[in-house]
Each structure stands twice: as C-alpha cells, then as structure tokens.
Structure to design on (487 residues):
C-alpha cells in the first residue's frame, strides 16, 4: 500500500471511529494499563529523587560485571582477543537494547589496554549500532586508529553465525568470551566453544530456557533482571540507579500482593484481583 | 540537535506504541499495524549494510591474502550468486533459489542443530563438575528429576516420582515465574530509561 493510500485509510478509519470508541481502553487491558502506569509513576518518582540528590541505595555487587575487567586483563596479558556476542535477535529486543552500555564498556577497556575485540553480528541493524558504539569507545579512549573495522562485522544469521563463530574461536582462541543478549539454541554452542578454547566466559540473558547453560557453562552468569541493571551498575549514575531502585520497590509491592492474594485465596476461595486483571 | 532529534523520535515512537496497545481508538486507526510496516521498511533498508560489511570483511581477507582467503572467495561467490538467483527468479517454490535453500541450507542447518545433542552432553560433563554452589544445586535437582523419569525411581521409592513432580510444579515453577517477573520489570525499566532519554548508548556517537 502506498503512503498516500495508507494515509487515506488512516484518516478514513479516524472518521469511522465514533465518540463512544474514543479514549476507551482495549477490553481486558485496563488492569495491565494500571500496572504499567503505576510502575511508570514509581520509576518517574525515583528518577526525580535521584535528580534532586536524594541518597540512592547501592546496587548489590554483580560479580559478572566486575569480572569483565578481569577477563579483559587476562586477554591482554595472554595477548589473545576478547570475543563479544550480542545474541541472535534484532534491535527491538529489550535484551539487545540492554547490551549496548556493556558493549561500550567492554570496547573502552579493550581500546585502553590495546586488546583486540572480536564482535561478529547476526543482525544487520544491530551490527550498525554495535559498530557505532565500538568506534565511539575507541575514540573516547583516545585511540581511534586502533579500531579495526574488520573486527566488528555482520557475519550471518542462525546456523551461519554459529559455524562462523566456531571457526573464529578455533583460529583466534579468545581468552575471554562475553555473551550478552538474547540467545536460543546457539547459547549452548557458544558456551561450549568458549570452554573448548579455555576462555573466561561471562554470560547474560533473560531467555529462561538458556539460563541453565549459562549458569552451568560460564564462569559468571547474569540472570534476567541483573542484565538490565548492569548499565546502572557500570555507570554509577544516580538517575540510572534510581530506576533500578524503583524496579525493586515495585517488585516488593508485587511480592506483598502475591502473598496477600495467596492467603486471601486460601481463606475466602476467590480474590477481587482476578476480576481486576481481566478488566 | 544531533542528539535531541533521535531521542525525541525514540520517545515519541515508544509513546505511540503504548497508546496503540492500550487505547481503542488507536487500534481502530491501525496504529500498530502501520508502525510494524514502517519498522519492516526501516529494517529492510539496513540489510544492504550487512551485505556491504560482509563484502568488505571478506574483500579485505582476499586482498591481504589472510589465512583461508580462498574460503572468502567461496563465501562471496555463494552470496552474490544466490542473490542474483533471488533477484532473477524470486523466492517462489520451484525456482533455483528455493532448490538451493531446500537442498543445501536446510540440511546444513538441521545438521548443525543436531550437533547440539553432543554439545549438551559435553555441557553436562562440565555441569557435573559442580564448579560452584549454583551448578551443584542444578546437578542435584537435575539428577533427581532424571532418575524420577526412569523405572529405577519406582524401585527405590514410590515417593520419588511424586517428589519430582512437586519439584517441577512448585519450586521450579515459582523460580521460573520469579525470574520472568524480574526480567519483565527489568525490560520495562530499560524501556522507560530509553523513552526518557536517560539511557543513550543505543545512539552511539550521537549520545555525546
């Protein structure tokens, strides 16, 4: 459909929408909307508190993130590269979005220590963003000439990526392997390849079926929400930390709600929550 | 403005998707469908960039005669010949492109996928070394569940299978839901950080 036809259809649909339809929520989505709005408010309040200079609770230590410097240091001492994978999925995946600050951190460290960073990509859009981040990191470290464009590249997707990485691992033998993002069946393959070449491995994902492979196979694993909190942990910025504190507060509220709901359900037999959720 | 415009576009797009998800009038207007179409167009534009990157990397391999540069020739030849067939004959069934896909790419992908079984075995061996507390817990729980699936469990105790079912339905399911809840809240907090322009790493050099 052409742009003009799309616009015409869009306008026609708008004319067809009666006043009764306007500003009404999607059926069954009101409970979800209220939950989203409440969480948004909590995050906003914590951001404002952080901006006002209110003391923020520290994020508990994340050994997986602390180990990044150690792993890059090891690679530097051994004269071997660092391998970094941002997962299988596209740019809209929250896990892909969460990896950008980590890649920037890793690239800055690699640039500073003059350690080669190998960053093959599965998705062309993610590749363009990653390329920009790594270039910028080398520039920030004051060593733009050390950036090798051939070290951040679009490799292929799915099976092509796995075979390519396998070959890369065997030839380059990275001393550190950082897997940060959304992985599928390639998680086990990447972890095993890293293990075979003796790399220190740091794995982070919120893809639950793949978590056991990271926990079992990697030296350090960041589980689900930890990978989202890592950018605040690295940056030590109060505003970013505020959003993580908001997340914890909301989680605590949900925990209380779950306990109250469970007790209520056990005693009364039904809760008012269920009708709210489907409202 | 180099920084503000991408951040404004990001914030506005995110807000419109939220409105499109929850408000009925936006659904009537087909916002989400329109956004999805725009997104597909935008990502399609990025695909040639991937092709350019692939060509440059392998072109440099050939030019500088790096290790296995002959494979780079093969890689580029396969890519461009496949592209040419696709452009000429299209992706329909019965074309050369679909034959290449069915006869070559599918078996290779299936073979690779089948190799996961060997890697899982190797990963199991690693896991069984109980390298840390979490891995030990994982091994103990896994062994318990594995034994529960075998006739051996019935011979040992009738409660073994029931206990395994309880582990799957309660502690395991509770942990699964707790991780999911944390992951979704983390993803949502990340989304808010991006919508508000607090998290800017995704716009690379423009963030400065």
């Amino acid at each position: 459909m052409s742009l003009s036809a799309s616009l015409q259809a869009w306008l026609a649909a708008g004319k067809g929408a009666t006043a009764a339809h306007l500003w009404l929520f999607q059926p069954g989505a009101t409970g979800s909307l209220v939950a989203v709005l409440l969480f948004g408010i909590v995050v906003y309040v914590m951001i404002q508190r952080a901006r006002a200079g209110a003391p923020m609770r520290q994020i508990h230590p994340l050994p997986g993130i602390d180990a990044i410097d150690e792993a890059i240091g090891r690679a530097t001492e051994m004269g071997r590269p660092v391998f970094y994978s941002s997962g299988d999925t596209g740019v809209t995946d929250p896990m892909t979005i969460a990896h950008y600050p980590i890649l920037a951190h890793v690239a800055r460290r690699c640039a500073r220590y003059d350690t080669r960073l190998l960053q093959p990509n599965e998705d062309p859009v993610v590749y363009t963003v990653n390329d920009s981040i790594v270039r910028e990191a080398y520039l920030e470290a004051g060593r733009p000439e050390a950036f090798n464009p051939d070290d951040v590249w679009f490799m292929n997707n799915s099976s092509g990526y796995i075979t390519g990485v396998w070959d890369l691992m065997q030839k380059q033998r990275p001393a550190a392997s950082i897997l940060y993002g959304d992985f599928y069946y390639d998680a086990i393959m990447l972890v095993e390849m890293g293990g075979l070449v003796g790399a220190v491995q740091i794995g982070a994902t919120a893809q639950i079926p793949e978590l056991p492979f990271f926990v079992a196979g990697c030296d350090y694993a960041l589980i689900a929400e930890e990978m989202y909190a890592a950018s605040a942990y690295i940056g030590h910025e109060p505003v970013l930390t505020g959003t993580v504190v908001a997340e914890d507060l909301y989680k605590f509220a949900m925990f209380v709600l779950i306990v109250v709901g469970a007790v209520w359900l056990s005693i009364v037999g039904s809760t008012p929550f269920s009708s709210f959720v489907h409202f | 403005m180099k920084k503000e415009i991408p951040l404004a576009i990001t914030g506005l797009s995110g807000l419109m998707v939220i409105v499109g998800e929850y408000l009925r009038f936006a659904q009537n207007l087909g916002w989400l469908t329109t956004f999805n179409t725009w997104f597909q167009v935008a990502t399609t534009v990025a695909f040639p960039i991937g092709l350019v990157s692939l060509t440059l990397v392998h072109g440099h391999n050939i030019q500088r005669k790096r290790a296995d540069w002959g494979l780079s020739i093969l890689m580029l030849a396969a890519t461009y010949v496949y592209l040419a067939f696709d452009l000429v004959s299209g992706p329909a069934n019965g074309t050369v492109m679909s034959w290449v896909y069915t006869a070559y790419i599918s078996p290779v992908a299936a073979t690779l996928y089948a190799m996961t079984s060997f890697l899982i075995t190797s990963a199991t061996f690693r896991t069984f070394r109980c390298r840390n507390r979490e891995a030990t817990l994982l091994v103990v729980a896994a062994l318990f569940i594995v034994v529960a699936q075998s006739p051996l469990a019935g011979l040992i105790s009738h409660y073994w299978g029931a206990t395994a079912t309880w582990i799957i339905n309660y502690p395991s399911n509770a942990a699964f839901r707790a991780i999911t809840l944390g992951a979704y809240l983390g993803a949502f907090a990340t989304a808010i950080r991006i919508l508000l322009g607090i998290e800017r790493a995704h716009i690379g050099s423009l963030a400065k």
User: Anything to note?
Assistant: The longest helix of chain B spans residues 158-195. The two ends of chain B are 11 Å apart (CA to CA). Chain B has nine helices and no strands. Chain B touches chain A through 67 residues (CB under 8 Å).
